[in-house]
Specification:
6-stranded mixed sheet, 404 residues, 5-stranded mixed sheet, elongated, binds adenosine-5'-triphosphate, alpha/beta, binds magnesium ion
């Protein structure tokens, strides 16, 4: 069991987002470790002393970040040394390294080169405060994220592998598009009752769900994989991060196809996600963010009649947007979307979250469907973007019609 303790008033005050704990937990998980607790403490001696000694009793390894520096609010090193009944010594090699990087006038030099005798020192090549390891079970890292990350990756990971090898456990991550938690939950619950040695984590995204399965062996995960594959196989998408755009990226590149979009309510969000991946220019032609009726008409030739009689959020409008998109691009695939992201603009007939979409391949009739995305404006936009990319993935990978 590993605990992570973040130290710093700035975190408790909400001035600094605790990204260190996020980073460390992600890294540790991917290395196969189980993090059992996160704690955040103020820069005050009593809470730090109490929590460190409790944590050391409870867990086999404790990692702290912050409070290692030379300023008066930096207490972690002193308190840890007291807990381990350690004196301090002046380390000439740390001093020399600091002099080499910062010159002779670094005011904190003497302080930063003075380390507890009982601690193993981790050289900080990015900043001034060295990391410290006490008796192979308490690791102190600096608070500055770049320093903490460099120390962790370069020195703590090899230390962990040597002194705290991760338990051999199998882990699989599955990403599903177009599903919500509640659709996957019943099958997972049932399987867990039969296979209690497997633990399951469900992480809902916006229009996607990620499932982590942990078990003693890869064989123990097999019943889960088989059942999920049978019931929801066509919703699975390959991705290292759980982002649907990764699957689209690979699918289009490997098939040498191109894509163009006509985005109204998503305001370019799909384009933004797709172009966040390097190499997108090889398949992604672009997106027309035709937010106003005037641009829908002018750029995509949506007729005035349609806009007046049916409205911009309608089957007819997205059909014409889709046709216009194919007329002015050479794309093999296209998506046109129009909807009401809210919070204003909803009606009884077309409430906030009403989305119309057209999706398809050049030369074929498009799939046209409507759905309702729930949530606030940001959520509606994200769910719509990811759902449409999910529908595109299923269309390309399995030939499944959009909306089915
Ligand atoms: P140093 O004095 O060598 O810079 P330190 O160990 O004393 O390191 P702190 O003084 O606690 O570190 O924090 C330095 C800065 O690092 C803070 O101002 C804050 O911006 C950032 N920081 C501290 N803790 C975290 C954290 N948990 N997540 C993200 N950033 C953090
Ligand atoms: Mg601090």
């Amino acid at each position: 069991m590993i605990e992570i303790i973040a130290i710093g008033n700035e975190i408790l005050l909400g001035q600094t987002l605790n990204t260190n704990v996020h980073f460390l937990s992600q890294q540790l998980k991917s290395l196969g470790y189980v993090v059992s607790r996160h704690t955040t403490l103020p820069d005050e001696p009593d809470p730090i002393r109490e929590e460190l000694s409790e944590a050391l009793k409870r867990s086999s390894l404790v990692i702290t970040t912050g409070g290692l520096g030379p300023t008066c609010d930096d207490l972690t090193r002193q308190i840890a040394a007291e807990l381990f009944h350690s004196d301090f010594r002046y380390d000439e090699s740390i001093a020399e390294d600091l002099r080499r990087r910062y010159g002779d006038n670094l005011r904190s030099l003497k302080d930063q080169a003075t380390v507890p005798t009982k601690a193993e020192v981790l050289f900080n090549r990015v900043g001034t405060a060295p990391g410290l390891i006490f008796e192979k079970k308490l690791i102190l890292l600096p608070g500055v994220p770049q320093e903490m990350q460099a120390l962790f990756l370069e020195q703590v990971v090899p230390f962990l592998q040597r002194h705290h090898p991760a338990p051999q456990r199998a882990m699989t991550t599955l990403h599903f598009c177009l599903l919500i938690e509640n659709q996957l939950d019943p099958i997972l619950r049932e399987l867990r009752q039969k296979h209690t040695e497997v633990s399951v984590g469900i992480y809902p995204g916006y229009g996607t769900v990620t499932i982590h399965l942990f078990g003693p062996t890869s064989k123990s995960l097999q019943p889960f994989l088989t059942a999920l594959q049978e019931q929801f196989g066509t919703y699975l998408f390959p991705s290292s991060t759980g982002k649907i755009e990764e699957a689209i990226h690979e699918a289009f590149l490997s098939r040498k196809l191109t894509l163009a979009l006509a985005e109204s309510c998503t305001g370019g969000t799909m384009a933004s996600h797709l172009t966040s991946l390097s190499g997108a220019s090889q398949y992604f032609l672009g997106s027309f963010v035709v937010y106003s009726n005037a641009l829908k008409q002018k750029i995509l030739s949506v007729s005035e009649k349609t806009l007046q009689e049916k409205g911009a959020v309608s089957r007819e409008a997205v059909t014409e947007m889709f046709e216009g998109l194919f007329n002015i691009t050479t794309a093999d695939f296209g998506i046109a979307v129009s909807g009401i992201a809210g919070p204003l603009g909803g009606t009884q007939e077309k409430p906030v979250g009403t989305i119309w979409a057209a999706l398809g391949r050049r030369g074929e009739a498009p799939d046209i469907w409507t759905f309702r995305a729930k949530g606030n404006r940001e959520t509606i936009i994200l769910k719509t973007s990811n759902s449409l990319l999910g529908a595109l993935w299923r269309k390309i990978a399995y030939g499944i019609r959009g909306g089915e």
